Every structure is written in C-alpha cells, then in structure tokens.
Write the structure tokens for this entry.
Amino acid sequence: EVQLVESGGGLVQPGGSLRLVCEVSGRTYNKWCLAWFRQVPGEGREGVAVITRDGHATYAARHVEDRFTISQDVDKNTLYLQMNNLKPEDTAMYYCAAGPTFVLQVAAYKSWGQGTQVTVSS
C-alpha cells in the first residue's frame, strides 16, 4: 500500500508561485505513475499533471502546461508540482495520487493523499 502526504499549499496573490510537495511512502511499484489532481467544491476531480516513476515521461493538462511543472526526487520519494503565474481559477484542493497507468483519469489511481488547499486571491 502506498501512502501519500501533500504539503505546500496556501494563500497566494494572482501571478504568484507555489511549490506543492507530496511525500510518498510504503510499498511502491517501480512502474507506477504519480500525478496531481485538483478539485473545487461541487465539481469533479480534475487531472493536472502526471509523471512516470522513472521520470522519463511527464504530461500536464493543456490549461496549465505553460505554468505548472511536475517533477520528482526518486531518492527522497518526493513528488513536486511547481506552479507559476497562478490565477484565481487555480484555487482548489490539490491531491497527489499513485497508480499503474500514465493517464490523468481519476479511476486509474489507487492511492490518494489527503490534499492541500491552494487559494489564489488578492
């Protein structure tokens, strides 16, 4: 079983930056992928970015690909999401997830963190 703990969220002004961190522990599979999703109240969970466990491939959703970067430190078992030029519409609870498939579909992910809140407001 994989355990995921997010941190790094907070309140930031429009145009600002944040780096989210997800600590991964427990039994991990070398070929599993790690991803970031986000969710606002009353809406479904939305895929943001995904990375393969070996780091050879990444993918970010089109609406964030020029502002958000997913990365990881395999030795530290840590996943990151660097978010730049944040906009009010980026306000959401952000979750990291682990699963066997390189997709941004909620149903494909088996393990989830508890989330970290990001609020973009002046």
The mean pLDDT is 94. The two ends are 40 Å apart (CA to CA). Residues 8 and 64 are 18 Å apart (CA to CA).
